[in-house]
Amino acid sequence: MYINSRMKHFGLLSYLKRLFIFFPFCVRGCVQWLICALSVRLSSQAEVSSFFETNTSQYLALVFEKPDSYLGRELTLDLLQFENISVRRVLSTEQGLVAELGVTQFPSCYLYHPGGNFTRLEVKAEARTFYFYALQRLPGVVRSGKPPVVIDVHNNKTQEPWRPFNSSRVYMADLESTLHYSLRVELAAHTVIKGRALNPLKNYIGVLAKYFPGRPIVMNTLNSLNSWLQNQSQDEILYKDFKEILDNTAQSPDTALPRGERWVACQGSQLHFRRYPCGMWTLFHVLTVEAKKAEASNQLEVPLAMRNYIHAFFGCRYCAEHFDNLVRGSLLENEAVLWLWSIHNEVNSRLSGALSEDPNFPKIQWPSPDMCPECHNVTKRGEHRWNKDKALRFLLSYFSSNRILPDYLEDETQILAKQREEHASRLLALEAEKKAERRVREAPDLEIQPLPSNPTVQEEEEEEEEEEGEEPQDEAVAEGEEEEGGEGAVAAQESNPWDKPEMAGGERSQKVRRKPSIVGMKIRRNMEDHIVDLDLFENQHFKAKALQLAASSRIKRRSLQRKVEPEPGPVFGLGMELDGGVGMVGLQPVDADFDMDVGQQRKWLQKRDLSPTGHWMSTLSIGFSRVDVSLCVLLYFLSCMCLLGMYTFFQHRFRLRRVKFSMS
Ligand SMILES: Cc1cc2nc3c(=O)[nH]c(=O)nc-3n(C[C@H](O)[C@H](O)[C@H](O)COP(=O)(O)OP(=O)(O)OC[C@H]3O[C@@H](n4cnc5c(N)ncnc54)[C@H](O)[C@@H]3O)c2cc1C
């Protein structure tokens, strides 16, 4: 009996649970059906002729079809989220309109313009995909709430100059920019690369050295990185050692990877759109195609290297997780080119209309019917099918190394000259430092004070707090310095967002240790000192930048507060919120002068990604000064007192009334 009732109870519970799970889907289905039923309208000649008197749409798309066709309904649903276009079904039985336009083919689509004229929509096949693609690309048709960004072709001071490009070609400048970003910025967030992250790095550099179709100077760099990595027998490497090979500090001839980013086909209409993630996709498509052409014995080498690199290092952890799940769920076919293409299309379909989508470069199922009409097939029932053989042929040609355009590339001799200059100035700085140290040693009466000559923003803020009579809160920097190479050291570096871009690993700790001698010199600077103290100069320069940045980021944070904060969205490298995030800060800062460096990226990764609690804490405390908080507490206290006062007042009145009542 008891068991029976328990069973019933259990059955009811599981029923409720199921209901709870499926309820949202049922509601969604019903809502979609309702929307469809309400918005799919049959049009008559009378309605069409008066359409523009009551509507502000720029176009009216008339889908002429047989009564049993679903095309008009599907297109109405597809285009519901677009502005400036309306869709109407016109049945073949609607004699008036059919005769007026002389329609003989069902289905077919006609556009009705405000001027009163009709034009037939030309598509390769009378099918949903083709119609949808053609209609959403009509001038003026935009996704609701996403107006296209007007690209200012003429350079304005805050944006990079727009580089005109051919949208059906791949550019080497994008690929080199991706390498620069990946190797100098993304990897630099990891002071020590060890354990399970080391193999992905080795494989990534391995496939780059094998298949990257780069210029000789870049290939020399990739090859030296690859052989250096393969010779590392320990299970960890320091990023700063990796960087020395990358920057060719040994000055091997004709070896360099250009610095900086020059996005061309991966340019976005705003600085937070496209760029590095676009470059990453392009790079991996190129590598898979090159591996295929080289008839590599292991066709999975590139997809696996990509998956593991993304998993271990990709700046947008949210994207990496999604990608991981996608790859796990997909069949890693032997045909790597097609595999990556279909995975990419799945990502495109998920992100279509998301906040991270550049309105000027909408996410589509790629290649579009315009780019490769033969890649698209339509079944007899009007369904879309990919022609995979044609798609493979298209991909092999599109990403082929001999079609990659060299436009906008920095000249090789310039790159090498710059590298030599940098090397020379680095040597000069080292020499200056050594001289300074020698001077300190030779002058024993010098008072050595280990003052930090490069205060971080955090330290600045602490100083401010100390001035206000409060204790500094964070001692991570000091602790980190003591534990070089350990977690503390990482924390110390991560807590300093204004580190120089090329400073990583134990380098900073070493620098801090060297400081006393230089700081000591600072006190006696009045003595005619001809040594150029580059450290001091750089410190001042970075400090000024840091303060400027801190001010601008404070302003940004305050303005962001006014927006609705969604769930913590994915953080892309330097803080790009994608796919449901706010989409506020890009891979490149909004101000071109504002060089986001390694330290900043570390701070972003640490604050916004690696530690979700930290993210929320920082989100909660954004923009509230101590005065705000005190005012809040004061107001809270006053309202409590007011409530208490009212309560006692009414209690007193009621008591008086009760007394009066009992007396009478
Ligand atoms: C591994 C990975 C995972 C990501 N996950 C997310 C995520 O979860 N959320 C998020 O918001 N963003 C994510 N991104 C970023 C996102 O996919 C886009 O890269 C970014 O929004 C820029 O889009 P885009 O318009 O430049 O085109 P991209 O999708 O970056 O494509 C770059 C270029 O590749 C070509 N192309 C497009 N589709 C295909 C295809 N199917 N096959 C071959 N070539 C194609 C086109 O020429 C296109 O211009 C991810 C990026 C990567 C590399």
From TrEMBL:
GO-annotated molecular function: flavin-dependent sulfhydryl oxidase activity; protein disulfide isomerase activity
Single Gene Ontology BP annotation: protein folding
Protein family per UniProt: Belongs to the quiescin-sulfhydryl oxidase (QSOX) family.
Ranges of Acidic residues composition bias in the record: 458-486
Keywords for the protein's UniProt record, in alphabetical order: Disulfide bond, FAD, Flavoprotein, Membrane, Oxidoreductase, Signal, Transmembrane, Transmembrane helix
Names of required cofactors: FAD
GO CC annotation: extracellular space; Golgi membrane
Name of this chain's protein: Sulfhydryl oxidase
Region (Disordered): 438-517
Main function: Catalyzes the oxidation of sulfhydryl groups in peptide and protein thiols to disulfides with the reduction of oxygen to hydrogen peroxide.
Transmembrane segments: 633-650
ERV/ALR sulfhydryl oxidase domain sequence ranges: 269-366
PANTHER family: QUIESCIN Q6-RELATED SULFHYDRYL OXIDASE, SULFHYDRYL OXIDASE 1
Listed EC numbers: 1.8.3.2
Catalytic activity: 2 R'C(R)SH + O2 = R'C(R)S-S(R)CR' + H2O2
